[in-house]
Write a structure and sequence with these properties.
24 helices, about 625 residues, about 60% helix, single chain, two-stranded antiparallel sheet, mainly alpha
């Protein structure tokens, strides 16, 4: 029997040496046979999406609250003292500040020389000197008690620092996309989420210790690095369900983001100081982290791809047990063969699987063969980098188009969300309405994806969103209700688009680079976020120009997706780089067909009797 391997399960032969040439089983071949979208998938989906997927929404909105602009003017203490404090507010404003050039209101960054006020209200000269604020300002605290802009006087000649801070925030998100995307494919989705979550909490606490706007902005950049936490839960979720349920899970995650927006509006309404706000967010993060550590499991699809078969089998057994189904013998046999194939250096003469209750027995496997197989499998498992996304034609084109779509979605989404005051109306009401609009957009997106697919739906909503953005800024302020309605239409469409690109991207990339591909897309979207504050400055040239630019980009992105990208609805996820390159072509179908034929051939081999297998 030298050179012959026999493994038995409870006395029955499970596989022999011929099985070492059998093609590896994929999670798509397993998932429907162990419950599909069952109790385990629902529990894990809720845990990952609700506890991890919703938290990154707090980052951008806390940034808005920190940098919220309020009414301000140069601080003139004499106006609060007799005899000027007896005058009404309009009279004091006229005595303290020069009018704006358009005649509407008074200058915020200049004042009349305060020394003149010593002469008394009736003795002021007709021609008065105008001076700068000298770094001291009065702020209207009727809406916000204390913001970062108030604390560090980021107004007037320092106002440009606000745009730099926002760009740093998106630079942090870009770095996080690169770092966590790579880490997620190397060490796993689950541990990467915990690393990011821990960093989020540490930096959130540390930002309260900052004493300058520069250090505050740098710390916010580190916090924004953890924004990739929003993508990894989606990756885990999309990898643990059958293809027909991926869109529902991805869109549900977008709905969680939308639902968190009105909650954040209430949060800002009742807590109007930035330091307590940050500490409260940390406090509610702790239970989410503990629950995740205790109950969230690693992606079995990723484990199978990385040939960590024993860990994958443990989770697959848990899935079957939770969903109350029995693992088919053929799947168990092929998983056992993979475990032996990729872990040949371990002593497997007698192994009892505690989850399944099966006992495995190995007979007579020479050490020379163990070393050969171990070396072969070690060489076959490689780590991919961002360069691999651009090595082949189709993968390169799709990565570029999808990255452009992500960048445009961020530009438009945050262009509307972070500047919602430009639409008129009360800030918190607008924010709550905006969140409700997002939830409705997600609900419609689920229906559209289910019936119409990804490609043309993405194209359609981006074009609609782009047109709405352009039209919004062309509506006069006197028609505020119409302006708000059109602005929310743009937000509705771009929210649906934002959720669709997550689903679409996750289905385009093969498993071996899925986290890396999404990380690359997210990285490019952060470039859009970095550019966004400077697009908004175009309103100094012509007030409607930022929304016209954003709308034009959205239309271009939608058309590129509709023309270039392949449809992915109800298609099996590509597993390898070869399948990823061929996805959407006849070659991909041939690869899948060959896989199925190989699988059937191996299933036929398992029907051979025990005596024939042992010879």
């Amino acid at each position: 029997m030298d050179g012959k391997e026999i493994i038995e399960r409870n006395g029955q032969p499970l596989f022999d040496e011929g099985d070492t040439d059998e093609e590896d089983i994929t999670f798509d071949e397993i998932v429907d046979k162990i419950g599909g979208f069952g109790k385990w998938q629902i529990i894990q989906g809720l845990l990952t999406v609700v506890f991890f997927g919703g938290f990154p929404v707090y980052g951008p909105y806390v940034m808005v609250f920190m940098d919220m602009e309020t009414g301000y003017h140069c601080d003139i203490p004499a106006l609060d003292n007799p005899p000027y404090n007896e005058l009404n507010i309009s009279e004091r404003m006229a005595l303290g500040y020069p009018p704006n050039e358009d005649g509407k209101g008074y200058s915020q960054c200049e004042m009349y020389d305060p020394a003149d006020l010593a002469m008394g209200p009736g003795n002021l000269p007709l021609e008065r000197n105008i001076v700068d604020c000298k770094g001291s300002y009065w702020y209207n605290q009727s809406e916000w008690n204390h913001t970062v802009l108030m604390e560090y006087n980021i107004v007037c000649d320092k106002a440009y620092q606000k745009q730099i801070s926002r760009s740093l925030y998106f630079i942090g998100m870009l770095l996080g996309s690169i770092i966590y995307g790579q880490i997620g494919d190397i060490i796993g989705r689950r541990p990467t989420i915990y690393i990011g979550f821990a960093m989020f909490m540490v930096c959130n606490a540390a930002i309260n210790l900052t004493t300058t706007y520069i250090t505050n902005s740098i710390m916010r950049m580190f916090i924004s690095c953890t924004g990739f936490m929003y993508i990894l839960p989606f990756v885990i979720g999309s990898e643990m369900v059958p293809p027909r349920f991926r869109a529902h899970l991805g869109m549900f995650m977008g709905g969680v983001w939308g639902a968190a927006t009105p909650i954040m509006a209430l949060y800002g309404y009742f807590i109007r100081e930035w330091r307590p706000m940050v500490l409260y967010i940390n406090a509610i993060s702790i239970p989410a982290l503990i629950i995740g550590l205790l109950f969230v499991e690693e992606s079995p699809r990723w484990l199978l791809t990385k040939k960590r078969i024993r860990e994958a089998r443990k989770i697959i057994n848990n899935i079957a047990r939770t969903n109350k189904v029995e693992i088919p013998q053929d799947i168990d046999r092929r998983l056992a063969a993979m475990e032996r194939r990729y872990m040949p250096g371990e002593d497997m003469k007698t192994i009892t699987n505690k989850d399944s209750g099966y006992t495995f027995k190995v007979v007579d496997y020479p050490i020379e063969a163990v070393e050969t197989v171990s070396r072969r499998n070690r060489d076959s498992i490689r780590q991919y980098t961002i360069i691999d996304l651009f090595r082949t034609k189709n993968m390169c084109i799709r990565t570029i188009v999808m990255s452009f779509n992500w960048a445009v979605n961020v530009i438009v989404y945050y262009g509307i969300s972070l500047n919602i005051q430009d639409l008129g109306g009360e800030f918190f009401s607008n924010m709550a309405i905006s969140g409700a609009v997002e939830v409705a957009a997600i609900a419609l997106g689920i229906l559209l994806l289910h019936f119409l697919g990804r490609r043309y739906v993405l194209c359609g909503v981006e074009v609609v969103g782009g047109v709405a953005c352009i039209v919004t800024m062309l509506i006069p302020d006197s028609l505020q209700w119409l302006k708000m309605t059109m602005g929310m239409t743009g937000k509705f469409a771009i929210t649906a688009s934002f959720s669709i690109v997550y689903v679409f991207s996750g289905e385009l990339y093969p498993t071996v680079v899925r986290s890396l591909g999404l990380g690359t897309n997210s990285m490019c979207s952060r470039v859009g976020g970095i550019i966004n504050p400077y697009i908004l400055l175009l309103k100094d040239v012509w007030y409607p120009l930022p929304f016209i630019v954003m709308g034009s980009l959205a239309i271009l992105a939608g058309l590129s997706a509709g023309i270039i990208l392949p449809e992915t609805k109800d298609k099996p996820l590509p597993e390898t780089m070869e399948e990823g390159e061929a996805f959407g072509t006849k070659k991909f179908d041939e690869l899948r067909k060959n896989r199925q034929e190989a699988k059937k051939g191996n299933e036929c081999d398992t029907d051979v009797g025990d005596n024939q297998r042992l010879t």
